[in-house]
Amino acid sequence: MHFPLPTFVPGPVATVIALILFAYYVAAPPLLRSWRARQKRRLAPKDRTPYATGFRHAAWCLLAEVLAVMAFLGTARSVSPVDIGWAPVVLADPEPLGLLLVGAGGLAVFVLLVVTVARSNLKLLQHVRSGELPPQVSREELLELPRERRELGAMAGGYAVVVLSHLLVVYTVLFPVLAQATDSALFAALALGLLGGWQYVGRGGGMIWMMAMLTTAGLLVYALLLPGSLLVPVLLWGGFWTVVLGTARALTGLPIPQNSRPLHPVEVTMLDADGNPVERPGQGALDR
Fold it and tell me: Does pLDDT of 266 surpass 50?
């Protein structure tokens, strides 16, 4: 079994809903970036935190996405449990072998990226505990992390909403529709991988590239290695966000040091007993 599956027939109404969700995923990142910028300029109420405000906003967006996905499933002409991820975890057919190897490669890439992020975060945590920051790390970004348990809880809730939104929109709607329309699960994974990176526009090229790689790798695993079970992306993305949340939890309450800067060379002039500069070997006489 591989995607696309012959049991899935969306129909015109469900296809329109999928296009609306696709447009929403394209338009949302710049709009959310503008909204976050306005939130930073505004003073939040004392009983609220920035993460709590973001979590409430994400929860409302998730509710709208749930309704859209329900409408999509309700209007599709033909849909089976495996089309939308409600199937047990099984290994894909070994033929063609190339597709199975691509799926296994996606799993290896996803795990490698998570391990790389975990190692990088451990090094950052060691630097912070030793009272210094690497030059490539921005102190302002670390200051935006939760500074108390309440904010950390809101951050964890926000990550849970991100995973649920990703599963509902990408795996349940966009991927099966795009895979069937192009007759290629590989093309659908690559296209939606780029869309996954686009969700983090404005957060730096490294973040965009990493999230695009993770999204593509996760979809390849779901489509070509362990198809038809949402438990697979739940475990993959749950592991990634657990690493990120664990780092934020470890940094909670720690003082954020200043960025270390290289010292500029200091020239020392030696004086004799009369207070005159002493000429150093290899240099001409000093101007007096």
Answer: no
